[in-house]
Design a protein that fits this description.
The structure holds two protein chains of two kinds.
Chain A lengths: L1 H8 L13 E3 L6 H10 L4 H15 L23 E3 L13 H9 L13 E7 L2 E5 L2 H6 L3 E4 H7 L1 H7 L10 H9 L4 E5 L8 E7 L10 E6 L4 E9 L6 E4 L2 E6 L4 E8 L11 E12 L5 E8 L4 E4 L2 E4 L5 E10 L4 E10 L5 E10 L4 E10 L7 E11 L4 E10 L5 E11 L1 H8 L5 H17 L4 H15 L5
Parallel strand pairs in A: 3-7, 6-8, 7-9, 8-11, 9-12, 10-13, 11-13, 12-14, 13-15, 13-16, 14-17, 15-18, 16-18, 17-19, 18-20, 19-21, 20-22, 21-23
Antiparallel strand pairs in A: 1-2, 3-4, 5-6
Helix pairs in contact in A: 1-11, 2-3, 3-8, 6-7, 10-11
Chain B lengths: L4 E12 L2 E12 L3 E5 L6 H9 L4 E10 L2 E2 L5 H6 L2 E4 L6 E5 H15 L7 H14 L10 E2 L5 H15 L3 E5 L7 H14 L5 E5 L3 H6 L4 E6 L2 E6 L1 H10 L2 H11 L1
Parallel strand pairs in B: 3-10, 3-11, 6-9, 9-10
Antiparallel strand pairs in B: 1-2, 1-4, 4-5, 7-8, 11-12
Classes of the chains: A alpha/beta, B alpha/beta.
């Protein structure tokens, strides 16, 4: 039985190929010259260079966080390439000018870039290593006033918006990796939904790391003005290398009065092999600011990749009656380590938050939930409900829960529930005794376990996530 | 008509973690029969049930079991289930987030498929399962609840019998189906089981208590101890055990041997 479970979890990674493409690569290492080089290559305004340099100088004074429940060798930040862009870097007038090798890459990944072939109703921005290579459906979105483009274009075409909001939710002083990102970010997606506009389609960014020694430091900024609504999807993959790549992104969301932002991630970075060699270090800062009254920000994540995940998509609930939600499935296998969760910071009155976290550990992996619920002194009648469930597959993996609850207002109500269950011999035997084989049993148990999160995902993502978990677990149970 | 033999157990030995539990079991079960196994704690009753169903923790160390003439141990657990072996669990597991109806339908369709019969879509299955619910006086709301999650002990046992009703096994092994049941629940479960009895299937009850056998009357009662059957008799044997306990059986057996 053991071997059946093993085979089930040990499905090979399907996105592990490398695209052979000419790249414009900066020399390894990090110093002010490199930052000036990045800024220069991107033709940035002076204020942005200043922002980068301030962040870099601040970063130099900081030390790497060591509190997460993960172990890895010290990262040599001078041994990383901070800029890698596929050539030609010339501005593309249409999709036809995109390097066919790139198009093939994304087709192989199941991300069609030709608009006519694209998934109905999903606009895609594609980030390849350090730069955005294309954004689809731009025109159609522009007709309703929505700006959806790469961060580089936004800096060029909408500098005032970028300047107003960049770093307003995650300041460069926030944490070690946010400071690093602020210094060296190369691209990312920018999305602006003006007042009263409900985005007519799902927006999506697809991130791909290709170069072996490059880091990916993208920066995503989404602003929803009064009564605006948007649903945003993010997908990630990377080739298989036997070295580790660093991914340190920052995502900032701003929701004004009555605005609603839904941000969904299916993260499938390369996780390393079955012995824990290679894989992405995913050290990401994601935060949403519910700035306006009645605003709502909802994070949904399905985390299946990366050698190490360090990620806490959070909500700052500033506006009265604002709502923060976090729905998460984090799956680890082999030697993967995940320390992930959320922060719900209740500042305004009548703010509400919901946390549903499902951790699945298989192989020799280690999966931790770490979450903070803070109710500020002025957050009268704030409410939080947290549910943190762990599932263990086999007996070599680990699951931990670290809930932090800080309540400074006596009218608050905070609930925390946690369960641990496992898929072992007895669970599988029960299914087998009803005629159901191991693979179907595991898939049914896992999908049942994750149901509360999957129902939050947009339809197509939900199907993808279900399949992905199945693939990831293939061979792990028994 | 010749009787159809469903299960033939010969000199069966089995162990768990290297510790022998079954030490030479013999039993023959024919179609249309109800057998009951009784015996003190640790006599090997539940182990026998799990070994027949194919629990991976147990190792068969000797002997043979034929299911309708086929080598039972050549089949993994799920194939045995598809071939018509059903185990009603003493402690059914909970499956959060998976509805009872989805689980039942998957099990049903898998078993039907293996028998070369048509599968049912969700609507057809719903009609089918409603009848079975009535048999066990179960509220249809059961179907929408997660498998066994938050069920009382009695509800879990009823749910086991519901699965039996849906899967229509050739051999149903019910491991302490009466434990944790109040008298009303026992009556309902027993009447459900009785209505599932046919001339073509067989039932093997594992129990501690004679009271179950007032409701499901066995054709044979086997007394187990030390990993084998010490004595086989009619339903009267159960009554005798109830009044005299188990000790005398072992002593008598020892006396005979001596």
């Amino acid at each position: 039985m053991s071997s059946v479970l093993q085979n089930l979890v040990n499905q090979p990674y399907r996105h592990g190929f490398v695209t052979d493409i000419d790249a414009d690569v900066a020399p390894k290492g990090l110093n002010e010259d490199i930052i000036r080089l990045i800024s220069h290559k991107k033709g940035e305004p002076e204020w942005l260079l200043e922002f980068r340099l301030k962040a870099f100088r601040h970063w130099l004074t900081m030390t790497e966080p060591a509190w997460a429940n993960v172990k890895y060798p010290k990262i040599d930040f001078q041994d990383i390439i901070y800029y890698s862009a596929p050539k030609p870097k010339a501005k593309l007038a249409s999709m036809d000018e995109v390097d066919p090798e790139l198009l093939r890459t994304f087709e192989k990944l199941g991300v069609p870039l030709h608009e006519q072939k694209a998934l109905a109703g999903v606009a895609v921005d594609v980030i390849f290593d350090s730069v955005s290579v294309t954004t689809t459906y731009k025109q159609r979105l522009a007709e309703v006033g929505i700006i959806f483009c790469s961060m580089s274009e936004a800096v060029r075409d909408h500098p005032e918006l970028v300047r107003r909001y960049l770093g307003s939710v995650v300041p460069y002083t926030d944490n070690y990796y946010a400071a690093l990102n602020s210094a060296v970010f190369t691209d990312g997606s920018f999305c602006f939904i003006p007042r009263g506009v409900k985005c007519p389609m799902e927006l999506s960014t697809y991130f791909r790391i290709n170069t072996q020694e490059s880091g990916q430091f993208e920066r995503t900024l989404i602003v929803a003005e009064e009564s605006a609504q948007v649903s945003y999807l993010e997908g990630c993959t990377a080739p298989k290398f036997d070295t580790n790549q660093l991914h340190a992104a920052v995502v900032e969301l701003v929701a004004l009065d009555d605005a609603d932002i839904k941000y969904s991630t299916v993260q499938n970075w390369y996780a390393g092999d079955e012995n824990g060699v290679g894989g992405i270090y995913n050290f990401v800062t994601k935060r949403g600011l519910c700035k306006g009254v009645n605003s709502k920000i909802s994070w949904t994540q399905v985390e299946t990749g990366s050698a190490i995940t360090w990620k806490y998509p959070s909500c700052v609930l500033l506006g009265e009656n604002s709502i923060g939600e976090f729905y998460s499935v984090a799956l680890t296998n082999h030697h993967q380590q995940a320390d992930t969760g959320t922060k719900m910071i209740h500042v305004g009155r009548n703010t509400r938050s919901t946390i549903i976290s499902k951790g699945i550990s298989a192989g020799s992996s280690n999966n931790s939930y770490r979450g903070l619920v803070r109710i500020g002194g002025k957050a009268d009648n704030a409410r939080n409900f947290s549910q943190c469930d762990s599932m263990l597959i086999g007996d070599r993996c680990g699951a931990s829960t670290f809930p932090y609850i800080q309540v400074h207002n006596s009218s608050a109500k905070v609930e925390h529930e946690a369960t641990t269950s496992k898929i072992g011999e007895d669970q599988l035997f029960y299914f087998a005794q009803r005629g159901i084989g191991t693979e179907e049993a595991v898939s049914m148990i896992i999908n049942g376990f994750c149901k509360d999160v999957f129902t939050q995902l947009p339809m197509e993502f939900a199907v993808e996530a279900t399949k992905l978990l199945g693939l990831k677990l293939e061979g792990s149970v028994g | 008509m010749t009787t159809k033999t469903i299960l033939e157990v010969r000199d069966l030995s089995a162990s768990i973690n290297g510790v022998p539990i079954l030490k030479g079991m013999d039993m023959t079960i024919n179609a249309g029969e109800v057998h009951a196994i009784m015996g003190p704690n640790g006599s090997g009753k539940s182990t026998f049930a799990k070994v027949l169903a194919g629990h991976p923790a147990y190792e068969v160390t000797g002997g043979s079991v034929l299911l309708r003439g086929q080598d039972l141990f050549a089949m993994p657990a799920e194939e045995r289930a598809r071939a018509g072996v059903f185990l009603g669990f003493q402690y059914p597991i909970e499956v959060p987030g998976v509805t009872n109806s989805a689980f039942l339908r998957l099990a049903y369709n898998t078993v039907q498929g293996a028998r070369g019969r048509d599968e049912l879509d969700p609507l057809e299955f719903d009609d089918f399962v409603q009848e079975k619910l009535a048999l066990l006086e179960m509220d249809p709301a059961f179907l929408d609840r997660s498998v066994n999650e938050g069920f009382s002990g009695g509800e879990k046992k009823r749910n086991e019998i519901l699965q039996m009703a849906v899967l229509e096994p050739m051999l149903a092994i019910l491991d302490e189906v009466d434990s944790g049941l109040d008298i009303d629940a026992l009556r309902i479960v027993a009447s459900g089981v009785n209505r599932l009895r046919t001339a073509d299937n067989a039932i093997l009850l594992v129990t501690h208590y004679q009271r179950l056998l007032d409701h499901i009357v066995p054709d044979y009662v086997h007394v187990m101890d030390g990993g084998r059957v010490l004595r086989t008799g009619s339903k009267d044997l159960a009554l005798e055990l109830e009044s005299r306990g188990y000790d005398w059986v072992a002593k008598e057996k020892a006396g005979v041997a001596a």
